[in-house]
Amino acid sequence: MALIVKKFGGTSVGTIDRIQAVADKLQQSRKNGEDIIVVVSAMSGETNRLVGLAHAIQEQPTPRELDVLLSTGEQVTIALLSMALEKRGCPARSYTGGQVRILTDTVHNKARILDIDVASVRADLDAGRIVVIAGFQGIDEHGNITTLGRGGSDTSAVAMAAALKADECQIFTDVNGVYTTDPRIEPHARRLNRITFEEMLEMASLGSKVLQIRAVEFAGKYNVPLRVLSSFEEGEGTLITFEDEGMEEAKISGIAFNRDEAKLTVLGVPDQPGVAHKILGPIAAANIEVDMIVQNIAEDTATDFTFTVHRNDYKKALGVLQATARELKAREVTGDDAIVKISLVGVGMRSHAGIASTMFEALAKEGINIRMISTSEIKISVVVDEKYLELGVRTLHEAFELAGESDSK
Ligand code: ADP
Ligand code: ASP
Ligand code: MG
């Protein structure tokens, strides 16, 4: 019998009716002969609600207690879904992350899964039960509840699939697959039948929240067949796969964007060895992650240095940079947190020239000013003003002819 891990996101279990619908779907899969592990998220909006409650008490919630709080969302849905299955005569049993023993490291709020004890899950499967597991959570070696970061139920599902060597990990969500770009921004976005792990990883890292980055990483590493599907309609969805010959044709597979960006510039710093370190060292020491970095060619003996950070870290980074600038006797510090990053992703870029110039030309025609550029083998990212996000994405979608009825790959 095929062993399938199925994950249902927040919208898919957002109401009692939807939980009933998920139970119907699982009952059908069971009838079709599948052995099933289900991983569920909290009901939609619940995790945000819990985060809000925490912030109403503490500006910076104690990480351990935040995890205790956030993990309750998924505990509700595993119990309700198991009840719905039992009601249908499908034997089911629910488990929190700690009960299955999804062992993680001790980093609260963004823990990494280290190991999963599959013994009890296997026993349930052998006894003909559907196993319902709370996503997004685990337990550390000291018995503390941990959570895996927002969107972490995807990773729980992939990790379960890897541990059980499941035949497929199916991520059921509110869209029927991975699209050329977020269909909420570009209605002409096209569903992809397949996308490579490498591209999906870039898309996820560059802001496409349809799959959590770690889930894609994990699936690639452990060779877990991963598919994104709709909870609400039938279909094949999108298979995340390793590269094959048929996939060479498309130059660009998708467009990702990230709204969580901010940039900082220090003007007129001495152009000397060690300056980049002097600027970014204190930023790293403040635990702020830096994304893009640009240093201008020096005029005379001074240069300008720009970098981007997560928008949540903007104020903190600005404070740190101002202190550094005083020390370095720099001329000025400027910053902007109304910027976004738009990225083209595609393994086809390796074998096609001229993609960057097509991209820049298309943006220029719309009068969109590019503030920063960064490239790697399979992606080109630009930073533009926030107000150009939709226009930028749609312009590029058209310029690279990504729209269409169905995927031709
Ligand atoms: P879930 O609650 O099921 O985990 P998410 O909200 O995390 O669902 O992910 C699904 C959403 O991802 C979609 O509703 C869509 O708006 C967004 N999304 C962003 N980029 C893409 C893309 N390239 N393809 C499909 N969906 C995307
Ligand atoms: N409920 C968690 C979140 O909203 C985890 C998840 O849904 O994947 O981020
Ligand atoms: Mg998600």
Helix content: 25-40%
- CATH topology group of the largest domain: Carbamate kinase
Number of domains: 2
* Oligomer state of the chains in this structure: single chain
Category from helices, strands and their pairing: alpha/beta
List SSEs in N-to-C order.
EHEHHEHEEHEEEHEEHHEEEHEEHEHEEH
Q: How much beta, percentage-wise?
A: 25-35%
CATH class of the largest domain: Alpha Beta
Number of helices: 12
Which CATH-level-2 architecture of the largest domain? 3-Layer(aba) Sandwich
Q: Order of strands in the sheet with the most strands? A: 3-6-2-1-9-11-12-10
Unique bound compounds: adenosine-5'-diphosphate, aspartic acid, magnesium ion
Please tell me the overall pLDDT: 94
Number of DSSP-assigned strands: 18
Give the N-to-C terminal Cα separation: 30 Å
> pLDDT below 50 for ≥5 consecutive residues: which ranges?
none
Give a short account of the largest sheet. Answer: 8 strands, mixed
Shape: globular
Give the CATH H-level superfamily of the largest domain. Acetylglutamate kinase-like
Query: Taking Cα atoms only, what radius of gyration do you get, to the nearest Å?
Result: 23 Å
What does this structure look like?
- By secondary structure, the chain is of the alpha/beta class.
- The chain folds into two domains: 2-174, Carbamate kinase (3-Layer(aba) Sandwich); 255-402, VC0802-like, CATH 3.30.2130.
- Helix content is 35%, strand content 27%.
- It has helices spanning 16-31, 46-57, 63-87, 97-100, 119-126, 153-164, 197-205, 213-221, 275-285, 314-328, 355-365, 389-399; strands at residues 3-8, 35-40, 92-95, 102-104, 113-116, 130-134, 137-139, 145-147, 168-173, 194-196, 226-230, 238-241, 254-270, 290-295, 302-310, 332-345, 372-376, 379-385.
- Helix 1 crosses helix 3 and helix 6 (153-164) packs parallel to helix 8.
- The longest helix is centred in the first third of the chain and has 25 residues, at 63-87.
- The two termini are 30 Å apart.
- The relative contact order is 0.11.
- The model has no long low-confidence stretch (mean pLDDT 94).
- Aspartic acid is lined by residues 9-10, 41-42, 47, 73, 135-136, 150-154.
